[in-house]
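For the sake of clarity, the format in which proteins appear in this thesis is described at this point. Each number in the token line that follows is a code from a learned vocabulary of backbone shapes. One such record is shown here in full, so that the layout can be seen directly:
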Amino acid sequence: MKSCTHIPAEVHGDGRFLVRRQEFEPAYLRSYETGLLKEKIDEALECLRSCRLCPRNCEVNRWERFAVCKVGRYARVSSFFAHFGEEDVLRGWCGSGTIFFSWCNLRCVFCQNYETSQIGEGQEVTPRELAEMMVRLQEMGCHNINFVTPEHVVPQILEALPVAIERGLRLPLVYNTSAYDSLHSIDLMNGIVDVYMPDFKMWDAERCRKYLLAPDYAAMAQRVIQAMHQQVGVLKVDEESLALRGVLVRHLVMPGMLEETREIMGYLAAALSRDTYVNIMDQYYPAWKATSMEKYAEISRRIFPRELGDAIQYARTAGLWRFDTRWRTGRGAGPDLFT
């Protein structure tokens, strides 16, 4: 196992959100032992024959060709590594074991990972190869397995899990999503995922249409984030403030769109809980198509410091108080281990 420097921590929040590590068991283990995981795999693979696993509802037979997401029978992976750029509750001192899936069911014009999500860099993997990635990340000492952009590959993740479990996988699973999922997919992940980490990008339908190419994005995000919360509740951590189970919501502050932030923060506090753990992110920069001054001039800049301050204040005014704060020693992302 990879040696990592242990950085002592204080529990984030209070005892209400503490689960002792020795008392924790990943949700998927019980589903595997009871046979529920096998049932979910069979159902999910059958769904690929007329795919409605995301809100695009393209009904393509993915056993024969790829769907709107450009993924067919098998998942495509661009990289996997111990990631030190994630939230503190995920990265800890040995990193979050991220697996980055290629392609995406959204078409965000400002995507900062467009080489992976829009161009599809990476290679197709079998269930066994995907399972081996999970186990390898565990052997490196990562604190969790973090599936990045999993919305269109739920069946493939489920199919790989039994192999990983039989090889000793015992880490919490993180479902790191844009929140443009179907309720069916989230139901398939019930009893499998420990930590849901959805984005909530935008609120206004017209902005969702223009910038995400999905006018129904906000409506779907509300439904699936509520379903996630009903499954696992607010974020719980162990004695070292490492996430074990619950919901962690990300929101990227966009230039000139603070009203979006205000609506989203109000929704999270009212529809989920004021104890919802939130990461209000300030790292927006113009990328992909958003660099076009002709078509997207309004988002072709970084946010101003006052915009971030206002965003945080909107969250506090809504009653939210559990925010991601970088108290661990900073490190860069680890090397790409995809071979």
